[in-house]
Amino acid sequence: MSDSPLRRLYVEHAPRAPEGRFSLDALAGGKGPLELDIGFGRGQSLLERAEAAPGSRIIGIEVRTKWAYRVQQRLTANGVSNVQVLCGDAREILKRAGPEGIVEKVSLHFPDPWWKKRHHKRRVVGEPLLVELRRLMRPGGELLIQTDVEDRADLYLAELRAIEGFTLAGDGGFVDENPFSARSNRERRALEDGLPVWRILAIRNAG
Ligand SMILES: C[S@@+](CC[C@H](N)C(=O)[O-])C[C@H]1O[C@@H](n2cnc3c(N)ncnc32)[C@H](O)[C@@H]1O
């Protein structure tokens, strides 16, 4: 089956990370705190964060070419200059990224839409990603993971406890509000639908 022209457009033009080892600092250019938004989907959190933190340099990573392409187009159309989109699997991209201790904040808004057991391998929040985040985050840096699924929240907490290197903030790891003043599409929908949202905030330890 051949790809549709639209799909080809997304695949060919979605912005990609450099090949091999690369520097997030050089990629983002300029100065200012460096932030990651992993799995930004339709991209509302990127737009809101760019506005809330104009001095920050934000790198969004999204595996779906359609959203990486379309969100980059939307950011350009809106004149947003402090966000850079990368298309690909965050686990693979961040393994190649440096330097250590450069990242101040990480957002994972409602990651992991997969429920079937055979799809567990696809889950982005797990040891491989958390190990890279631990390496890339500066001491005192903040990692926010939000979900509307209680079991997932428990799983993410267990994974954070297991890898060490992070201190859980708030009440047993949960905070009441999104501390980054940027809501994702999914968070907006959950709030509109009156669904509970579990928000985990973890602080990167020193050393
Ligand atoms: C349920 S959606 C949430 C989208 C958005 N963060 C929100 O809250 O509206 C999960 C998103 O994570 C992306 N994603 C899943 N695994 C990923 C990975 N390994 N690397 C990058 N993005 C990933 C999916 O393509 C999808 O856009």
Structural overview:
It is a single chain. The radius of gyration is 16 Å and the shape is globular. The termini are far apart. It has one domain: Vaccinia Virus protein VP39 (Rossmann fold), CATH 3.40.50. The strands form two sheets. The protein has a seven-stranded mixed β-sheet with strand order 4-3-2-6-7-9-8, sandwiched between helices. It has a two-stranded parallel ribbon with strand order 1-5. With about 210 residues, the chain is α/β, with parallel strands linked by helices. Helix 1 (about 5-15) crosses helix 4. The longest helix has 14 residues, at about 150-165. The protein has helices at about 5-15, 25-30, 45-50, 65-75, 90-95, 125-135, 150-165, 185-190; strands spanning about 20-25, 35-40, 55-60, 85, 95-100, 105-110, 135-145, 165-170, 200-205. Bound molecules: S-adenosylmethionine (SAM). S-adenosylmethionine binds near residues 40, 64 and 109.
CATH topology: Rossmann fold
The CATH level-2 architecture is identified as: 3-Layer(aba) Sandwich
Tell me the radius of gyration.
16 Å
Tell me the distance between the termini. 51 Å
CATH superfamily: Vaccinia Virus protein VP39
Biggest sheet, spatial arrangement of strands: 4-3-2-6-7-9-8
Count of DSSP E strands?
9
Q: Main β-sheet, in a few words?
A: 7 strands, mixed
Secondary-structure element string? HEHEHEHEHEEHEHEHE
Estimate percent helicity: 25-40%
Strand content: 15-25%
- Overall average pLDDT: 94
Q: How many H/I helices?
A: 8
Low-confidence blocks of residues:
none
Number of domains as seen in the coordinates: 1
Briefly note the structural class of the backbone.
Answer: alpha/beta
Shape: globular
CATH class: Alpha Beta
Give the cofactors and ligands.
S-adenosylmethionine
